[in-house]
Amino acid sequence: MSAITLLFYLTLLVYLGATVLYFVGMLGKRPAAGRVGRWVLVAGALLHAGSFAVRHSTAGGTPVTSLHESLSFFAWCLVLLFLLLDLRFRLAVMGAFASPLAVLLMVGSALSPDVVMELNPMLKSWLFPVHIAFAFLGNAAFALSFGAGLMYLIQDRMLKSKRFTGIYQLLPSLDTLDKVNYTCLSVGFPLMTLGIISGAVWGNTVWGSYWSWDPKQTWALITWFLYAALLHGRLTVGWRGRKAAIFSIIGFIFLLFTFLGVNLLLGGQHTFEAFALF
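Structure (tokenized):
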């Protein structure tokens, strides 16, 4: 087993361990387990960084060109942003959402072909890692916004039905979840914007055009407009609570299609095959 593979599966196991601890902390009402889960997740993020460092050295550049690498990198960005969010809000209960999602992404990555090959020369520009970092961190922020929105709707439903037992007692207040949702949106939107701009500049150096209406570009723009509408609604119209939560969920569905559906179904210049070395 190669060092890359070993580090990858160790990371997956550590993320799985963190998930178990977060669920024990939440469902078993043991806050100490959630605190331990936080540090286990930190250890997993460090292991994950090590696996990318080794892969970067082997590939000779930013190793985010295949489905395997993209899902893995998405998981890492999600964990990093959750840990930063947790520093501000101390919401261990969100770890029971973020860590399982990271595990699912890693499992999807593990089930995808993993072949480390030399990068296509067009990907060795310094703009490519900049574009990738902005885009994936933006996606991760919107994933956390989706999680906060989902938790908001669950909490809101329980309040309206006057069911104050079980998971209700474990969830943060509606106001806190709305603040988390807005924080993630405020972080994710500028990151997505910078990802689109840096991608356009990089595309011009590679294909000689800033914008070619490639399927990935088109759906990225549609998703950007959705989140722009949500941010505009929150800042000017006063959208909060349930409406903002629903928009966050809808936006993330569009984002998932842009991230995976376009690559797998619609083709274009941004497919994983297009990034293979010629």
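Confidence is low (pLDDT under 50) at residues 273-278. Residues 1-118 form one domain.
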